[in-house]
Amino acid sequence: EGAVFLRKKITLLRAFSLLIGSMVGSGIFISPKGVLKNSGSVGFSLVVWFACGLLSMFGALCYAELGTRITKSGGHYIYILETLGPLPSFLFLWAEFFAIRPANSAVVSLAFGRYMLEPFFAPCAAPVPAVKLVSLLGYYMVLTLNSWSVTWSARLQTALSIVKLLALALIIVPGMMLLAEGHTENFQDAFDKQSLVLDKLPLAFYAGMFAYSGWFQTCFVREELVRPERNIPLAVIVSVITVIVGYMLTNVSYYTVLGTQDVLASPAVAVSFVQRAFKSLISVVPVLVALSCFGTMNGGIFTFSRTLFVASREGQWPPLFSMIHIRRHTPLPAVMLMFPLVTAMVCIGDIYHLMNFFSFSRWLFIGLATLGLIVHRHRHPELHSPFKVPLFVPVSFTIICLFTVAMSFYSDPVNISIGCIMVLSGFPVYYLIIHRQMSNRCHYLTHKLQLLLEVVQQEIKTY
User: Fold this and answer.
1) pTM above the 0.70 mark?
2) 445, burial (CB in 10 Å: exposed 0-12, middle 13-18, buried 19+)
3) Which residues pair with 10 in a beta bridge?
4) Which domains are delineated in the chain?
5) Residue 434 burial by CB count (10 A; 0-12/13-18/19+): exposed, middle or buried?
6) How confident is the model over 176-189, as pLDDT tens digits?
7) Which helix H or strand E contains 137, and what residues bound it?
8) Which of 119, 248, 250, 359 is deepest in the core (most CB within 10 A)?
9) 307 and 77 in contact (C-beta within 8 Å)?
10) What are phi and psi for residue 324, nearest 5 degrees?
């Protein structure tokens, strides 16, 4: 009954929850170890955390302007397509689907499984097969919810955002209390230059930026936002400032309670923190952290399905994935497509190798998207944008992103080379397939799947 299209159901509160829920996830509970390991000392690791927050704010402001200038959903993909052209946008889509997004989802899923099982096996580590099984079950639950209802996915995100902030508060408060009592011994010689290794700093930034990643999520659902010209910049600025403050206080709390060696030796930093500082909550905090990861999974599936939806609508992905369920009004085929790749990566993946593997490709294309903002401004000076950032913001952010990507080849050549090969493998696919008409057999298969899944093309343009 009525037209089939994606409704505008993302209010300002839901946009704020989507950003908070996507940023505050497994990263702050996993990444402190990676940042400390690659920065070399407590002081430099805190500098890296603050620098990553500032860099995230620059990127978020650039994307807020892009979200007001370009009215389509799709995030990185649509911005690269509209500013730099179809080839780089397809290479992003190719890398995002086969490397970036499944690896990212696998990292968050594995963190969910590890923290969910931690109270049942403490003080021992949870068995790896059990962690992977629970990780997959959590991912499948989120996948099912996103296939079922946009409204309930958004409501879950709002509820879990509150849980995430509560989890951070439970870490911050006892740490600040101990710090106020004079427990500063772990901050002695905080800036030990002897342990600083410059060629490892890009990996420290990757770990830190992974914790902040998610500041771009509202741009993926631009067509479903209520009053996007106002709500995108407002939600971005408030949420990123909130997360920067929360992350800095959380890391100070970690280092107040745990020494450098404790952080490096811990498979789950938040759990080790609670064991030392707040034993009465030893079984509560891991569950809160797991729920935080659950919210990040929900936000990731919610937004990336829109990228596949838009790419299909633009003719760079099979047409089935631009279809919407006739009753649920969800992009069902696009939501379900990530299922096999994430399953495979969870089964075979290691968190820290996966993190380096997808970070190269992600930051390469984010840098290209903000470069596209500079190009778009130059090509369309007459275009009025309701939100505009100073030019030095996209210029500095783009330079830092591309420089970090280049430096990472020296830091982790194996995983970065795999990511580079994954991106370059999209070239022959683009020239052999995208410019050619689909065969009748492909149209026949699309039609059969359309009947099976009860999906149709969007009937109203929302951009």
Assistant:
1) yes
2) middle
3) 225
4) 12-457 (1.20.1740.10)
5) middle
6) 888 888 777 777 77
7) helix 128-148
8) 359
9) yes
10) -125, 140
